[in-house]
Write a structure and sequence with these properties.
- This protein is of the alpha+beta class.
- Helix content is 25%, strand content 34%.
- The chain has a domain of 141 residues.
- The chain contains three helices and 17 strands.
- The chain is rod-shaped.
């Protein structure tokens, strides 16, 4: 009788190592994207505020810049809020920009008017200019009334500049979620799988992997039982046949004559008186 093969119960579900690798890859894509985009947002919400009139000297990268003027504020007092707005006073006639080489940079009115809120202060886009190359620029603002300004890229440019990082955040987030789901599914599937190892083709399969082992050996087969030996039938001992007398004349056993001849096997018809 041949030994029956052992059938393996394969653990279904994603591998734990694959799930962790996908999750880590997603985090590696998300982390720099979040940091880069967050730093751009922080520059908008917490960038430097300059007092005017006066000259602002600052380092600018190449690109378009807008001078946002503080036009008012919004304050809340319980359920009521009070808003003040005196409008824009800056234009291309009272703002001059000089590049790192000392050349004048063209200034124009900003359209459409974008708005930045810093706490209770409201800043509205007044004028804009193009920085041809990175360097230290001088922005001179000549106004009769003191005020505050913020110099910043247009909000649309900031988002367009960060499109690759936003895509990295989206793709990385999807990978991280997929890796986390794969990890949970793998843990659940392995929790439901049999914990005892099973073997197929000389390899033991467990929920944690496979390892080679020696093939199983068949148990020795028991020798078939011999049929019981029947007792021999006793053979009857033959009764010895008495020896017949030799051929000769003998007294007639029938009594009809005096003698009758015996031929060694039978009585004959030869008689004598």
């Amino acid at each position: 009788m041949q030994p029956q093969p052992i059938v393996s119960t394969k653990v279904k579900g994603p591998r734990i190592r694959s799930a962790v690798a996908v999750f880590v890859l997603g985090i590696l894509l998300v982390a720099p994207g979040v940091w880069k985009f967050a730093s751009s947002v922080v520059d908008i919400l917490d960038g430097p505020v300059y007092s005017i009139p006066g000259t602002v000297r600052t380092h600018l990268d190449s690109g378009t810049y807008i001078v946002f003027e503080r036009t008012g504020s919004a304050n809340s007092f319980g359920p009521a809020s009070v808003t003040t707005d005196h409008g824009i006073t800056l234009d291309s006639t009272n703002v001059t920009v000089t590049d790192p080489s000392g050349n004048d940079v063209g200034v124009r009115s900003s359209v459409p008017n974008e708005t930045i809120t810093r706490g209770s202060d409201r800043f509205v886009a007044a004028v804009e200019f193009n920085a041809a190359h990175a360097g230290r620029y001088a922005i001179h603002i000549d106004v009769s009334q003191p005020g505050l300004v913020v110099i910043q890229h247009p909000l649309g440019d900031i988002f367009r500049k960060n499109v690759p990082w936003l895509l990295a955040i989206v793709v990385g987030g999807m990978l991280a979620v997929a890796g986390f789901v794969m990890f949970i599914v793998g843990i659940v599937r392995r929790g439901r799988s049999p914990k005892t190892p099973v073997m197929v083709g000389g390899v033991v399969t467990t929920p944690w992997g496979t390892e080679p082992v020696s093939p199983p050996t068949a148990a020795p087969m028991a020798a078939p039982m011999a049929a019981p030996i029947a007792a021999p039938t006793p053979v009857p001992t033959p009764v010895p046949t008495p020896a017949l007398p030799p051929a000769a004349w003998h007294p007639d056993p029938q009594g009809q004559h005096r003698l009758r001849y015996w031929d060694g096997a039978n009585w004959t018809d030869h008689t004598a008186d």
